[in-house]
Design a protein that fits this description.
The chain has 5 helices and 7 strands, in the order βαββββαββααα. By secondary structure, the protein is α+β, with helices and mostly antiparallel strands. Strand 4 and strand 5 form a beta hairpin. Helix 1 packs antiparallel against helix 3. The protein is elongated and about 55 Å long. The two termini are about 30 Å apart. The model has no long low-confidence stretch (mean pLDDT about 90).
Length: about 150
């Protein structure tokens, strides 16, 4: 099975696959794409380049386009998730809603980030924010920053 996520949105496609109880690999070609492995109505594993599990699932929930394929009977290389159909769809729906304003602001994840003039070293940040900010460079894309930080991408 294959299709275009701009025609067949991610959530309804995954709802159909999870509801069918089929197992296999769901792959999406997109700059923020990756793979999901399903089995018996559960999400078992998510991968998006260097991200796995919850972080990869969070990033895949941001997709509103790209092409997908589903290969049945492909076992996951590892299990990083254990989400039954309702829990998986609920999580993906919440993540998709949270991503909408961020994707509008930063639609191209291949462009490098830069600090604005308002930024200064005196601004208070959390440890996670510091980790992410320390990875910003003129030659590093937002996609690469998300991979290197190993933090939840949103």
């Amino acid at each position: 099975m294959s299709g275009d996520l701009s025609v067949f949105p991610l959530l309804p496609v995954l709802q159909m696959l999870l509801g069918s109880g089929k197992g296999g690999q769901f792959s999406v070609e997109h700059p923020r794409g990756g793979e999901l492995w399903l089995g018996h109505g559960e999400l078992l594993h998510a991968r998006s380049d260097g991200l796995k599990g919850e972080a990869a699932l969070q990033l895949l929930a941001s997709l509103d386009g790209g092409t997908f394929t589903f290969e049945p009977d492909v076992a996951p290389p590892e299990q990083t998730l254990s989400l039954r159909q309702d829990a998986a769809l609920h999580r993906l729906m919440l993540e998709a809603d949270a991503w909408a304003p961020l994707i509008e602001l930063l639609p191209d994840w291949n462009l490098p980030l830069r600090r604005t003039r308002q930024w200064n070293d005196q601004q208070p940040v959390t440890r996670q924010q510091y980790r992410a900010l320390s990875l910003i460079s003129p030659h590093r894309s937002l996609r690469r920053l998300a991979e290197l930080s190993q933090l939840p991408p949103r």
